[in-house]
Design brief:
heterodimer; B: mainly alpha; Growth Hormone, Chain: A
Chain lengths: 40, 466
């Protein structure tokens, strides 16, 4: 029972962090690409 | 709507506190869009002319007011609704912020469609500004309660999201406008609707995930310090009593001066870099420089706030003031020797400390006033941001203008401003130095004050005539 609860919480954590992490990473990459123009 | 109440958000056993930072980020990443609103200014100045502005089109100066109104209402709403946010709980606040934020976009879309600027002032400016204030303080205060062992790191994560929101919004908005635009139509209204729907979804997910800790909860293995540390209180201070303490106003000035110094150069970074290094920094390179600055602005929020957990809040601000002083003084020197690399390094560190100032201040308030009303007190403190939003750009722009009209070469026109910014940080250093622990007469002695506060809230909440 406790094992199932822990697995469920682990899955929730992965989903929640992916939910915010993926768009943020995409945004950071876009900004980095833009920032590289400083060194060109 | 009882599921929005604080009592329905109390975490059950087995809940991981690491679910709260993504909940906070759901809100902060959305409202951080405010930093990217300028991408709409140029397209909105051509709504009628499409390829170029006509006399009936809105002017850029008129459009600039949208962001200013939003920031003004951020300060007002965080100050006015701070106590309600604290007592109503994070879910109710985040849900309200979601409705206001999305509603602001929808009203603005109508404003664009019928070409009525006042609707955009009302939508994005007023309603969006209220969402900014409520949405900014609520997750921060919740995180402080979940991470008593690392409050700086926790708030740094959320406020980092506010800095990062523009990274997503800016390219996404440009892409959406390109998708919706036709040879006879600029796709701003449709972009507003799509963004409003996306933000509504994201923020509501955040409000569903968020929880408050059960009374008496503490992290596993964490033992609160038995002996009170000099600048970290174990007591709570009632929100309006905090205003009576000199510490509140000293922190207000510390934040205001730190933000003034940063915000002034942030807005002018592109023009400043090109004018200080003519021929070396092109407009394209300057855009890259601005992008790099926003990355350091975001990273600094997490880095400095996390660092403050180890070196202390007051010491962190001492670092901002001392290091900032030397860096501002060094900027004219980098211009005189023509070192672009040194100039860029100076500004990247400065801007990281600007972001760090925002992210460290909630934990500073928690140290001074306890966790109970920290969100409400933080809301009142954000008026310093609004004030700095006026001081900073005015200082940079007007002093540069004065210098240029008095014959100072453009490459040196910013030197005076840099020394003034360094001077502001000296004042900030003195204010920070004067901060001592809050006198015990301001501490909440029992639940008497809380009962008084709740009675006032209940009286306000009662329907008229009830």
């Amino acid at each position: 029972m406790q094992q199932a609860q822990e697995t469920s919480m682990g899955l929730k954590l992965v989903l929640a962090w992916a939910f915010v992490g993926i768009p943020l990473t995409w945004g950071v990459i876009q900004t980095l690409i833009n920032a590289m123009k400083l060194f060109q | 709507m009882s599921f929005l109440d604080r009592s329905h958000t109390v975490a059950g056993p087995g809940f991981s506190r690491w679910l709260v930072p993504p909940a906070a980020l759901c809100v902060h990443l959305c409202i951080g869009q405010a930093y990217a609103f300028s991408v709409f200014n140029l397209p909105m100045s051509k709504l009628l002319g499409i390829t170029q502005s006509t006399p009936e089109d809105w002017k850029l100066t008129q459009l600039g007011w949208i962001f200013s109104i939003a920031i003004l209402f951020l300060g007002i709403s965080s100050a006015v609704f701070g106590r309600w946010v604290e007592e109503g709980g994070p879910r109710k606040a985040m849900f309200t912020a979601a409705l206001c934020w999305a509603g602001g976009f929808f009203i603005s879309a109508i404003g664009v469609y019928v070409h009525q600027l006042w609707l955009i002032y009302l939508g994005y400016g007023v309603l969006g500004g209220i969402a900014l204030g409520i949405g900014y303080i609520s997750p921060v205060s919740t995180l402080i309660k979940w991470f008593p062992d690392r409050p700086g790191m926790a708030t740094g994560m959320a406020i980092m999201g506010f800095g990062g929101g523009a990274f997503i919004a800016s390219p996404l908005s440009v892409w959406l406008m390109a998708k919706f635009s036709t040879p006879t139509h600029v796709g701003v209204a449709e972009t507003f609707i799509v963004l409003g729907l996306a933000y509504l979804f994201f923020m509501i997910v955040g409000s569903i995930i968020v929880r408050v800790p059960a009374p008496g909860w503490k992290p596993e293995g964490y033992t609160p310090p038995v002996v009170a540390q000099k600048l970290i209180t174990k007591n709570d201070v009632y929100v309006y009593d905090a205003l009576k303490t000199p510490q509140f106003w000293l922190i207000w000035w510390v934040l205001c001066l730190n933000v003034t110094a940063g915000i002034g150069v942030l807005g002018q970074a592109s023009a400043m870099s090109q004018e200080m290094f003519p021929g070396h920094i092109t407009p394209i390179a300057a855009a890259g420089f601005v992008g790099l600055m926003s990355l350091f602005n975001m990273g600094g929020r997490f880095f400095w706030a996390s660092t403050s957990d180890f070196i202390g809040r007051r010491n962190t601000y001492f670092v901002f003031m001392v290091l900032g002083f030397f860096l501002y003084c060094a900027v004219p020197y980098t211009g005189s020797i023509g070192s672009v690399a040194l100039f860029v390094i100076c500004f990247l560190i400065i801007i990281s400390m600007y972001g760090g100032g925002f992210a460290t201040v909630p934990a500073y308030l928690k140290d001074m006033y306890g966790t109970r009303y920290v969100g409400a007190i933080h809301g009142l403190l954000l008026t310093a941001w609004s004030a700095a939003g006026v001081f900073g750009p005015v200082l940079v722009n007007y002093i540069r203008e004065y210098n240029v009209t008095h014959g100072v070469p453009k490459a040196q026109a910013y030197n005076t401003t840099m020394y003034i910014m360094a001077g502001l940080l000296v004042i900030g250093f003195i204010c920070n130095l004067m901060i001592k622990a809050v006198h015990e007469r301001f501490h909440m002695k029992s639940d008497h004050e809380a009962e008084r506060a709740q009675a006032e809230v209940a009286a306000v909440s009662e329907p008229a005539g009830a």
